[in-house]
Amino acid sequence: MIIEQKLVAALRGHKMKITPQRRFIFQALERGMYRHPTAEDIFRDVRQTLPDISLTTVYNTLRELVGMGLLRQVDLGEGMTRFDPNTDLHHHLLCMRCGRLEDIYIRFPCIALPADQTQGFTVTNHQVIFEGICPDCQIQPA
Amino acid sequence: MIIEQKLVAALRGHKMKITPQRRFIFQALERGMYRHPTAEDIFRDVRQTLPDISLTTVYNTLRELVGMGLLRQVDLGEGMTRFDPNTDLHHHLLCMRCGRLEDIYIRFPCIALPADQTQGFTVTNHQVIFEGICPDCQIQPA
DNA sequence: TATCCAGGTTGTAATGATTACAAATTAGAG
DNA sequence: CTCTAATTTGTAATCATTACAACCTGGATA
């Protein structure tokens, strides 16, 4: 319920309407059975309870949430975007073979860009992606 | 010449043919006027000297190079893939507003995944993406 | 509670990057 | 020089995502 409530509150704060479609999308994110769903994943999930929801609505809603900073967008080289309802600072561990993606909760205090290396950028955030092979893929032939 | 030679040698090693198309693609990567080109960027560049090259060939070649580990693939949320001829371990600094991407050459010795956090993965690599706003975009209204 | 409209939803069509495929070409071994 | 497997090419498909226009509705208002 935590995520859903947070998102509903955010909608109120932005004077946006709380529609059943949005509610179900939030619940799908909440259910976290998959932690890094694609738009299509959410669509399939919500469809089970709201069979007439449109894929466009899912895309719209996810885009809005990202815009409001309530959802993190994760881009790997998969050809599609994944969404991460966990906006806490954390990192990722990616299987290069099957695409499995896990969260890593460690703080790396040494990751900071010295002022003389920012090239004038204002740095607001950073993320680490660890690449490797997951246990399942290690077993398989190759 | 360094990159081109390295790539040509790699082709030989893999018993692949050294075609003019591939050579010009290597040279375009070499020219590094743009350090993180898209397939389209390379296509436009090579076209100036080889007007009949096909976009498909560019995609094929880039894909092969990535597969051989000679080119790094960089995926941001831009809807297209960028390629980085620099395979040295380095990190990136990304402007969230205009997509400008710069290299960061610092080693962060503290970035290592403790054995009890790998979830069984064999970790082979990692990269850091710093997100922020570039100097040009800071000036502009918003 | 009934009314109303700005914001939301939907289906479909468009877009844009990338890949598949089959026919034509060519690098390079013999 | 010949021959063949690898490569290139152009076009057509694919796949994720966005644009758009018509319809619908949450929730503010009276």
Topology, please?
2 copies of one chain form a homodimer.
Chain A: H1 2-13, H2 20-31, H3 39-49, H4 55-67, E1 72-75, E2 81-84, E3 91-95, E4 101-104, E5 122-133, H5 135-139
Parallel strand pairs in A: 3-5
Antiparallel strand pairs in A: 1-2, 3-4
The structure holds a DNA duplex (30 and 30 nucleotides).
List keywords for this structure.
Dna Ligase, domain 1; DNA-binding; homodimer; 2 domains; globular; 5 helices; two-stranded antiparallel sheet; Arc Repressor Mutant, subunit A; three-stranded mixed sheet; 20% strand
Structural description of this entry:
2 copies of one chain form a homodimer. By secondary structure, chain A is α+β, with helices and mostly antiparallel strands. Chain A has 2 domains: 83 residues, Arc Repressor Mutant, subunit A; 49 residues, Ferric-uptake regulator, C-terminal dimerisarion domain (Dna Ligase, domain 1, 2-Layer Sandwich), CATH 3.30.1490. In chain A, 37% of the residues lie in helices and 20% in strands. Chain A is built from 5 helices and 5 strands, in the order H-H-H-H-E-E-E-E-E-H. In chain A, the strands form 2 sheets. Chain A has a 3-stranded mixed beta sheet. In chain A, helix 3 crosses helix 4. The mean pLDDT of chain A is 92. At the A-B interface, strand 5 of A face strand 5 of B. Strand 5 of chain A pairs antiparallel with strand 5 of chain B. Chain A binds a DNA duplex (30 and 30 nucleotides) through helix 4.
